[in-house]
Amino acid sequence: MWLSIGASARAQDAAGPRASPVLARVEESFAALSWHRLDNGLEVVLDPRPSGTMVTVAIGIDVGRRDQPRGWTGLAHLAEHLMFRPRRRAPVHFVARMERLGAVVVNGITMVDRTVFYETVPSESLAPVLWQEAERFAHVVEDLDDYAILTEREIVLRERELRSIWHRIAPSLAFEALYRDGHPYADAHVERPRDLAAVDVPAARSFLQRAYVPERTTVAISGSFEPGPTLALVEATLGVLRPSAPPLPPPSAPLPTLAGERRLLVDMPRAHDQLTVLWPTPPYGHDDDAALDLVGHVLEQRLEARLRAMGLSVDARQESAHLASEFYVAIQVPRRVGTAVPLEALDAELVRLETELLAETELAAHRGALVASIARAYDGTTARALGLVRRPPAFGGRYDPRADLARYDRIDPVRLREVVRRWLPRTRRLVVSLNADPRAPGEGRLVRSVQVR
Amino acid sequence: MMWRSLYAFAASLLLLACGAAPRAVLSPPVLPLASHAPLPPEPQPATSDHQASTLEVARVTLPCGLDLAVLPRPGALAGAIALRAEGSWQGDGSPIEDELVLVETLERVLGAQVELDERGLFLGVLATADDTRTRAVQLAELVAHPRLASHDVARATSIVAETRRAYHARGDLLFPARFAQRLYGPGSARALALDTTRAFHEPPALRIEQRLARLMRPERVTLVVVGPVDPAEVERAVAEATSALPPQPHAAPRPLASPEPRAHRP
User: Fold this and answer.
1) Which of A194, B18, B86, B244 could form a disulfide with B220, with the two C-beta atoms 3.0–4.6 Å apart?
2) Alpha-carbon distance B239 to B64, whole Å?
3) Residue A60: beta bridge partners?
4) Min distance A70 CA to chain B CA atoms (Å)
5) Band of the pLDDT at A2, cuts 50, 70, 90?
């Protein structure tokens, strides 16, 4: 049997008074949201939207790259790939099986904190899709063989190859500096070929059995379906899953801190020079996390205006994660321009944010644009289901998009200034200068690492 | 026993010398398989009980010849706008550089998905619920006044040129010159799109704007707006944005002439 929890009313309370029409529309669209827990510990989130013809099934596992044992980078990603392999009982690749059922979207993503599988199909295919999902979760371990590992390892390595240079090399340099050895995120942004080469059937099996367990799993269904019969269907399919090993313990770690400013100069065979500045910041759901989202929005627009003549692109944002986040500013400039001028511009804008209060109207405009862009994504069933399988600890393990969006309405100009002072000090940060050099090796070359202050 | 310890010591020294962290032992290495309750028989997809979708599209040809279609979705959290300007690069005589820079400029200025091929220009924009009408008017204004700021074009040109240089420097496997030559033949202007070894001549901003103006013929443009909008209001706003254009009927679609394929299996 399942336990139904009427969380809608509670979410309304948490959201407080509705401050914007966009937020009111989002709240209305999630009015029929409900949470249920099955006997095996599986969490089910139902988000019926009767007007459409499609439905998205997302299965989120609260285990990601942070949970890989030491020396096994790439294992979580490889495990995700193994879920798509043909089975003895279903001898066709999972994507092909979904396409036969009319799927328009089929994918799996391995993130730092979690792993998500999802597909969007015509609503009449919901029952077979849930069955197929249950089948692959039930039998992935017993169907593993060397050939599957070998094939998927090659694909994972190829994906690594195709990722941009920043993703291949810079994270290992930047995150080594940000996260001390032993922090769950220290190795969570890299995939080392030698680690992947060590993965064999027992290793993959051990990880899958301890990571993909019902009590760490959330199923979200969003779109056109009947809640009652659908819940019974989930219980008959994914509800039969049983764990065969104790789950991996949820990781915990203190927030990282930097002792001063560290500057890295890296040569890379890329098109443009790039300045990247990183600060360790609080995790997703922390009171200051939403305020930092807004700071990113303000900073990006101001830097765009300031660097219009020379900057090629500006990206400033809070990269939120469950244990710790990074505030990230990346400014691309043409080759040979260097990163001194962008850094000067960034510092000038940071001083401005530390000393001047943002006008209420300007704050309202930024808040409106940010909330509207999040709301825009919630128009589609895929984004909704992907959002609903989140389990950030700061939200009490049960994510409600309404409570998440309502956080932005509680930020005022004083709070914004305080957040910049507290989390974005110019004396404690990591500054990475990527120098575009066609002769640099493909993996990049660390030219200098200096502790400035 | 001693030899074994020495061997382990030497192995760990070797690992440390290579900069490799010792790998954790996965525990427990062998686990029992789960004994799941049996799954029910695999169900088949249900018969669809959806009625054939009847979309309530408001469609009108404006005096300037622009074809406007609006699909209202009351209560939607987002809107989408698509613009198709029928035209062709074939026989146009424009260098391929212009195409690459125009696409990059429009992507950056409009935040749009841009496609430019033998059928013409396609722009796709995702909008927030409240911005849907404004973004539709923005595209209509581009039809009425196809102008581009020179600094936006210069920025896009720099991006295209530098990206090509970087691809060339890396000897990128995705865009090998020989593939371009096989596809388009030696000497073809279009081969430049893939062949990063060839010189890229930076086009002047004015030429890019003229290229856009040639594509933005209102009588060959179709604008589609989907979202939480009132069709009458959208029609009024788009008509106002294009009111300065001379009246003319919407043009019949041109037959599509496919280019001669040059690729062959070796």
Assistant:
1) B86
2) 8
3) A116, A218
4) 5
5) very low
